[in-house]
C-alpha cells in the first residue's frame, strides 16, 4: 500500500514538473515570438531611417543644384550688371534691392550687391547706397583667401559719354579685414559705400543715369591684378 502511495506521489510530482516545464516552454515560445516581432519592427525602423536619410541627401543635392542654378555668373568681360527700378529705391529705400548671389565661375567666388537709399549720415543729403558682400560658396575651401581681386562698381552713364560714377573696392588696402575673408556664416560683413551718388543726379529731368525708369549698376572684377 505504501508503495502505491509513493508511486502516486511520484506521478503527481512528474505531472507537476511537466506542467511547469510546459509553462516555461510556452513562455519561452511567447518571448521568442515577441522577440521576432520586435526584431521585425527594428528592421522596419532601420529601413525607414535609411530611406529618410536618402531622401534628405537627395533634397540637399536638389537645394544645392537650385542654388547653383539661381546664381548669376559674370560674363566674359568679368562684369555683371544689376538693373534697379528707380521707383523702388525712391519709394521705399529702407527695403534693400539685392542682386542675389553672383559667382565668378561655376567653381569660383560668390558675392552680392545691395542697393538702398537714405539720408547720408554726415552730409544729410539723400543718397543712393551700395554695398558689396562676399557670400559663402561650395568651393570656398579651394579658393585663395583673403579675396584678392579689386572690384569696381559703377552707376552706368546711359548717354553714351561713358562718364560712369564708379567706386573701387581694393582688398589690398585692408587684406586682414573680415570683409575679405572666407565666410564662416552665410555672408561676411558688407563693404559699404554709403554715398555712392546723391539722389538728385537720378531724379533730375533727363538724367543720363536713368532709362525707362531704371538704373544700371555694373560690377567688374579685375583678375589682372593678381
From TrEMBL:
Q: What is the lineage of its organism?
A: Eukaryota, Metazoa, Spiralia, Gnathifera, Rotifera
What the entry lists under Pfam families is as follows: TRAF-mep_MATH (PF21355)
Matching Gene3D superfamilies, A to Z? Apoptosis, Tumor Necrosis Factor Receptor Associated Protein 2, Chain A
* Ranges where the TRAF1-6 MATH domain occurs: 97-217
- Coiled-coil annotated spans: none
Q: Which GO terms describe its biological process?
A: regulation of canonical NF-kappaB signal transduction
Instruction: Kindly provide the name given to this protein in its UniProt entry.
Output: TRAF1-6 MATH domain-containing protein
